[in-house]
Design brief:
The protein has helices at residues 9-30, 40-47, 61-67, 73-98, 103-114, 117-125, 130-145, 150-163, 169-180, 192-212, 227-238, 241-250, 254-265, 269-285, 292-296, 300-316, 320-337, 341-344, 348-366, 369-376. It has 383 residues and is mostly helical.
């Protein structure tokens, strides 16, 4: 197979933007429409200048950005959200360039992002706080790889905290890479004192927002007011441990299988351990929020990066039929599940079809070469 062309920085931004715009338009036409459900009402109230309950009342960045625009409230939120999702696509392609990956792998990553739960969900619900936070999180991954000054990272973290406090999971990622010489972020390039200062300052800012931003007392069970009760409430809402695990899987579908296959058979042990700790951190957070899929979106970037790497391995080994089948299965799964989120959970037929798609993807991954790789032992292939 001919040598793959490496990706240039400027080219990566163009590729990511074009694919992001294409997917945004596609889901606007193909996905089920939404009302403004759940926490969207809190963000509309913030937009109107009202005080709302904690923790939603602290997430002021997205409503603030929406208020800067001249159109109706829903259009303003939609513009902020869609622009953030498209920009995230560009950043992910740019991030891929920093890893010295190929043009095709950047395209695969952007396609997986465009077919991912957060892209489809936020790109069709609009009135949410998370999309700018995901953009800032992607920037933190990309810029830390390029060893920007810690003040830049702190600024992005503080902005992200004002969008949604779960951006602090980046601190887990960068510390794991520092301690294990991992490569997902640029953690290994920063001194321990720099990261310690970054951590203390970011957490201090987070605590400061809880003091300086005025909110109403919490009016519902949440991780702030009653974490233990929230844990029990989450398991009840999920339907028990097994269904909760299935919900975690549903956040990615076959892409999670592709990611796991790459981590097990191709990723260096240090990166694999760092990735595992980061992923388990997100899994732990799912027990503090009802929206399991939205919490798991926090680790979209590493999971989709490694899923794209697995698909790239298939291409480089000349297994084009497996590659096409995997991409097709993920696309159909995304359309079936994420494109029909309002009706999927109540539809037995859709659930069975999603399970069949996942089982088919698992069978394709396991047949037959990857099993032989497992028998020979995992190669040590650092990112």
């Amino acid at each position: 197979m001919p040598k793959q062309r490496r990706l240039e920085n400027r080219e990566s931004v163009v590729v990511g933007s074009v694919l992001g715009i294409a997917f945004a338009l596609f889901w606007l036409l193909a996905a089920e429409p939404w009302e403004i459900p759940a926490d969207g009402g809190y963000y509309l109230a913030i937009y109107e200048g009202q005080l709302v309950a904690a923790p939603w009342g602290y997430r002021i960045l997205t409503p603030f950005l929406a208020r800067l625009l001249p159109w109706s409230v829903e259009i303003n939120f939609a513009v902020v959200t869609v622009v953030s999702l498209v920009a995230t696509s560009s950043v992910l392609a740019w991030y891929t360039a920093s890893l010295n990956k190929t043009f095709s792998q950047a395209v695969i990553l952007c396609v997986l992002w465009g077919a991912s739960f957060p892209f489809v969900y936020y790109g069709t619900t609009f009135v949410r706080a998370d999309a700018p936070m995901l953009l800032l999180l992607a920037l933190l991954f990309a810029l830390s790889r390029r060893f920007v000054h810690p003040i830049v990272l702190l600024t992005l973290l503080c902005l992200g905290i004002l969008a949604h406090e779960t951006i602090l999971i980046f601190l887990v990622a960068i510390w794991m890479d520092k301690l294990l010489s991992g490569t997902l972020t640029g953690g290994g390039r920063y001194g321990s004192w720099q990261l310690l200062a970054l951590t203390i300052a970011a957490i201090g800012f987070f605590l400061g927002t809880r003091y300086f931003i005025a909110v109403l007392p919490s009016d519902a069970i949440n991780y702030v007011s009653a974490p233990q009760e929230m844990f029990s409430n989450v398991l009840r809402a999920s339907g028990g441990w097994v269904k909760h695990i299935l919900r975690i899987y549903a956040a990615y579908g076959p892409a999670l299988l592709f990611c796991c296959w790459f981590v097990v058979f191709h990723l260096s042990r240090r990166d694999a351990f760092s990735f595992t700790v980061l992923s388990l951190s997100a899994v732990g957070l799912t027990f503090l929020a009802i929206d399991t899929l939205r919490v798991m979106a926090l680790v979209s970037f590493p999971i989709l990066l490694y899923a794209a790497a697995y698909l790239q391995v298939l291409r480089e080994r000349g297994e084009q039929s497996k590659f096409v089948a995997c991409v097709f299965l993920q696309g159909v799964y995304s359309w079936l599940v994420y494109g029909h989120l309002r009706t999927f959970e109540a539809s037995s037929t859709m659930n069975v079809l999603a399970a069949l798609l996942s089982l088919t993807a698992l069978a394709i991954c396991a047949w037959p070469l990857d099993i032989s790789l497992f028998r020979r032992g995992r190669p040590s292939a650092p990112q």
